[in-house]
TrEMBL record:
Enzyme Commission number(s): 2.7.11.30
Signal peptide: 1-18
Name of the protein described by the UniProt record: Serine/threonine-protein kinase receptor
Keyword Isomerase assigned: no
């Protein structure tokens, strides 16, 4: 029966999911717990399921499936499960299924001595099976009681991969997919329905970020507003199709479209970092030289990992962020940073020479836009162009860090880049005048020049801000430069 539940969940879990390919979707009749009150859904094909649970009557449901689980259409009906798949709009509307007829009982014979031994073995196996089913039932009842407010179906996908593991165990184990950086797709759906939202920790134009609890561990739940669905879809797409696991890129756990308070919510579930964004951290915390270099170097490591293409079956395409800023960098408990918010990211693979820019109408943050973006001269068909705009923005983030660094007991209050040249919410034209027409860059504090380590940081900034995009440093060169500055800072005095 567990196998039948799993087969059914494979089909139901994708009914109407926004994770399906948006191309060539069929409209199908929808009659299951995942229809969210609608009589139709969209998928790669239409399906009908007939399931008979022990002691119950057969129950027929209809919905959609996608290319992830085509194997569920294969096989003949059994006494407890049957499925039908079709490939025309509403082709599953008037289909009725039948279960396989159980075989007739054989005539009684007088061979009791011959079957007594196997019969005892069968009784033992049945007893063990009944015990296993009872324990599984108890676990499911606990899950239902704990998460009944999330509207889970009585047909719960058995996520045996989860067990009693912690979140860290899960993400470090072989449960992670070969292509994506989070949990397997179906397990993502299970995890999302087991999270309790605790407190709202941030708001922005995209929606809200909440701290949630999953099995006693904190996770971050980014809830997108309906108008920013493309950002949610893009982040989900990138995290689920490329190998992004890296210490300095925000750890992805799961993505789901869920229903709460009679409305659909788009969730992105990631690791939780209590220090919040670098933007928030810098306003609270002045930095010593060591911490400043540590923060800067860790961001460079994350950006270099995004920018590089890794070849092979376990590789990843090159990725440009396109909205790098201090609000999109998080500070971890070990005081290293990780890069977040991939809703505008662009991907490129040399093998196919394909440039995937997504389908998001949102633009980046005007204050951090490179001059070639502001004067609309950026080559949108060239992937290197997007990497160069990331480097410009990275230089501005370095400036924010340097301004908050203590030198000879002096430190300045936090300010955003160009704070003294444009208003709080600058327009595109205001930024264009300052950056393109006047060719201004933020003023680098003179006190940095007197420090051998921070002067290196200042020089790196300048080389990120060259007007000629191709003359700017690469993320890998920045990473190596900052790594050397960190190493020299940690050396005892007198050792060179």
């Amino acid at each position: 029966m567990d196998l039948l539940i799993l087969l059914l969940a494979l089909g139901l879990a994708d009914g109407g999911s926004a994770l399906s390919s948006p191309n060539s979707l069929l409209t199908c009749a929808c009659e299951n717990f995942n229809c969210k009150g609608s009589s139709t859904c969209q998928g790669s094909w239409c399906t009908v399921w007939l399931v008979k649970e022990p002691g119950g009557q057969p129950r027929e449901t209809r919905g959609c499936s996608n290319h992830h689980h085509h194997e569920t259409c294969l096989g003949l009906p059994t006494e407890a499960f049957a499925q039908y798949c079709c490939y025309q709009p509403l082709c599953n509307l008037n289909i009725s299924l039948k279960l396989a007829t159980p075989p007739e009982e054989p005539h009684q014979t007088n061979h009791l001595p011959l079957i007594l031994g196997p019969g005892l073995a069968l009784l033992v196996l049945l007893g063990l099976g009944a015990l296993a089913l009872w324990r599984l039932s108890r676990r499911r009842e606990k899950q239902r009681a704990l998460h009944s407010d999330l509207g889970e179906s009585s047909l719960i996908l058995k996520a045996s991969e989860l067990g009693d593991s912690t979140l860290g165990d899960l993400l470090d184990s072989d449960c992670t997919t070969g292509s994506g950086s989070g949990l397997p797709f179906l397990v993502q759906r299970t995890v999302a329905r087991q999270i309790a939202l605790v407190e709202c920790v941030g708001k922005g134009r995209y929606g809200e970020v909440w701290r949630g609890l999953w099995h006693g561990e904190s996770v971050a739940v980014k809830i997108f507003s309906s108008r920013d669905e493309q950002s949610w879809f893009r982040e989900t797409e990138i995290y689920n199709t490329v190998l992004l696991r890296h210490d300095n890129v925000l750890g992805f756990i799961a993505s789901d479209m869920t229903s709460r308070n009679s409305s659909t919510q788009l969730w992105l579930i990631t690791h939780y970092h209590e220090h919040g964004s670098l933007y928030d951290f810098l306003q609270r915390q002045p930095l010593d030289r060591g911490l400043a270099l540590r923060l800067a170097h860790s961001i460079a490591c994350g950006l270099a990992h995004l920018h590089v293409e890794i070849f092979g079956t376990q590789g990843k395409p090159a990725i440009a962020h396109r909205d790098l800023k201090s609000r999109n960098v998080l500070v971890k408990s070990n005081l290293q940073c990780c890069i977040a918010d991939l809703g505008l990211a662009v991907m490129h693979s040399q093998g196919s020479d394909s440039l995937d820019i997504g389908n998001n109408p949102r633009v980046g943050t005007k204050r951090y836009m490179a001059p070639e973006v502001l004067d609309e001269q950026v080559r949108t068909d060239c992937f290197e162009s997007y990497k160069w705009t990331d480097i410009w923005a990275f230089g501005l983030v370095l400036w924010e860090i340097a301004r908050r660094t203590i030198v000879n007991g002096i430190v300045e209050d936090y300010r955003p880049p160009f704070f003294d040249m444009v208003p709080n919410d600058p327009s595109f034209e205001e930024m264009k005048k300052v950056v393109c027409v006047d060719q201004q860059t933020p003023n680098i504090p003179n006190r940095l020049a007197a420090d051998p380590f921070l002067s290196g940081l200042a020089q790196t900034m300048r080389e990120c801000w060259y007007p000629n995009p191709s003359a700017r440093l690469t993320a890998l060169r920045i990473k190596k430069t900052l790594q050397k500055l960190c190493a020299n800072l940690e050396k005892p005095k007198g050792i060179h």
